[in-house]
Hints:
This protein has one domain (7-184): VC0467-like (3-Layer(aba) Sandwich). The strands form two sheets. The chain has a six-stranded mixed β-sheet with strand order 4-5-9-6-8-7. The chain has six helices and eleven strands. It is globular, with a radius of gyration of 17 Å. It starts with 6 loop residues before the first strand and ends in a 12-residue tail after the last helix. It is α+β, with helices and mostly antiparallel strands. 26% of the residues lie in helices and 29% in strands.
Amino acid sequence: MKSLKGHFLVASPHLEDPNFTQSVVLLVQHDEYGAFVIVLNRPAESSLKDLWEKVTEKPCETDKRVHVGGPVPGPLMALHANRELAEPEQEIVPGVYFAVDRERLEKLVGQREVPFKIFVGHSGWGRGQLEGELEQGAWLTMPASLEYVFADEFELWRKVTQCIGQSMLTSTLKIKHVPGDPTVN
């Protein structure tokens, strides 16, 4: 089994589960036992500042939205690009780190310089379940990047599916470049 850790799962139009319609999911962990993922483009109704006041006395310096990482409840989690806070955290893709430690989360929300997203909830699959969905065509995949992890969540699905489509087109047609606007060809 080839691990897809550090890849995006992109919901195909054929995926009927409403929890994942037009979602872009980051594989945080993927091995022979299953997969642990976070949905990147599901902002919650509440702001991080509102949530933060309920869980700690520490200040929160941002009005960012909290994100719904999936339907499975769990601790607050973060994806961030702060290398100084990363040790000994897990690096998911180059420059993107995963955190659940309360002290690190407090430091992240107390700053404005480094990109981060806070998540409530996550998703997961048991042994072989994700591989079955991939075979059925429910998901498209591509390697994740820092640029897309912290991109605007309202544009993320469109951008990533466009990137996957262009990659498929160039490999299928064996061309070197697909123009942004093919009508100018």
